[in-house]
Amino acid sequence: MSTVTSIAALLLFPSGLFLLLSGLAYEWADRKLLAQFQNRVGPRWFQPLADVVKLLAKEEVAPDGVNGRLFVALPIIALAGALTAALYVPLFGLAPAFSFPGDLIVTLYLLSMLTLCMGIAGANTLDRFSLVGATRALTQLFSYEAPFLLALLGPALVAESWQISEIAAYANGRYLLLTQPIGFLVAIIGLMGKLELPPFDAPEAETEIVAGALTEYSGRGLALFRLGKGVEMVVGLTLVAAFYLGGVANPFAFLLKTLVLLLVMVVMQALMTRLRIDQTVGMWWRYGALLVLAQWLITILFHAISQVHLMG
Amino acid sequence: MQTDTQRERFTIPIGPQHPALKEPGHFRFSVDGEIVTGATVRLGYAHRGLEKLAEKQNWVQNIYLFERVCGICSHTHATAYCLGVERLAGVIAPPRAQAIRTLVCELERIHSHLLWLGVSAHEAGFDTLFMYSWRDRETVMDLLEALTGNRVNYSVNVLGGVKVDVTEEIAQAIYKGLDFLEERTHHYLQVVSSDASFLQRARGVGVMTRQQAEVMGVVGPTARASGVTRDIRIEAPYAAYADFPPQVIVDERGDLEARFVVRLKELLESYRLVREILARLPEGELTVRMPRRIKSGETVSRVEAPRGELFYFLKSNGTDTPVRVHARTPTICNMTSVVRLAVGHQLADVPLILAGIDPCFSCNDR
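Predict the joint structure of the above. Result:
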């Protein structure tokens, strides 16, 4: 790949600007669908973009007692993490911009950057709501992270590769959703936890702690965090769709499958009451982690048996 | 945060401005991690000096004043006030007027309980129930508007009677609206008592025993959800409640789920009452003559607001203005229970425990 196309891939398409806009589009779809389920009208199509533009135009107030440099840097790091993760993912049905063996692990950790940055951002301020929100965000990170990782490693196991492009190629046309249903379930619920969507929105439960870790953020910082969340939504949906829903080989399949996934997530958002943070942690470690481990065991056993058959 | 050698308590201030509070109030919760270890409350942010103002206005003007104590139970306030003044003057409003007062009281209870259902669901993080219950609440708001001309502050009462009449057309509209609401309420009752994700936030949370409820002097649906049989409509029937007695809904469990169940069952009871009043509405005049000056004396007027017992004290010296009007609202009776019950619970449960008493700060601060 020549330098020019590389830069274009980074800044414009498929990563960069286009990804930011599609993140906003998915955020809109999420909000609009949720509104429909709740018998509301919902936002207009440009509302997320308008919010970001407005936030960018606003003054960013750094409160007393924060580390100023950290306060400014954290949103940028968070967004950068999400955007970098996008480079290794088959976005919009195209091949990943970059690929190397083991990039699955790197991508998953890059995706956690956002939550980590939000946690640090909350802990950086003196605001009580932010501190509680940060504690909750990080607690939640520790509860869903391992099951989510294991759920995405399930397909890697059968594909015998930890490289996203290879797993995606293996999963193309194979609906692993049918052979690894638990893994799929954990992956999609884990993604909701990652995005702090209801019922996993305890870290930003407005009726308790206002806006959680981001309470003190306004203007640019808040806009960047929100953009990062939109990007993470697209990347996460792409990963789950590519691994479990028979691949995203072309843009049409990409759009269809990610939107179906989004619909599933919206239905869960509409149906459930917010979980307390102790309930979230309990649920993940008591059920999520154990179930996905059981799934692993079954997958490994089947794999071993089929290998023996092949050799025999 | 700076670490102090002295163990400083980590307090979370909630209010006067906070998304969990729809009205101003100030709470300080000291927490250990997520567990609340202490709670204090400060009220009075919405004090408007209404009681003092009442001493400068005449008896008639004060109806409009006390209707505006609360935006949700305004008719209940006006009814309590009017009944008290009528008792001082030795006047009894005609039966049809009393029945219409009762009718509007019950319609108002329906609107208040549906509003509460939405607010509480939102505090719990169950926005779908919030949106649906408020959509359905519009039905009763429309009925109230058709009946009285206003969505809030209905202005139904005058001294010595009421100023709106129930026509056949409106009665039919109310029957129709209630049929819809009854069906919805049965559905919500099923949701709050069977939805697993909702129940893990409500069942067994914020338990107030019957003894605690009696000691703290809790009133209204909050008390009835703890097994206390206390309802002014039965204990001291006012307006037309003697002719149309409601059934007291009691639940022994005392947790948040019980408070949801009690209020929803009270809705069903209100639907029954409204239908009964419409079916047996007495004929006759709407008002009787009231003297402009009220005989000197003092009296107490108690009514059952949607949130519990509403208490009015009135004192007259024989002129056309009162000497003293005092209103005590149910929120002040129930507020102690919030501070008491919050301790030992998770921070996440606090908004729901607060919403469980259906607080009305502006009412309370007057």
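The first strand of chain B starts at residue 10 and ends at 14.
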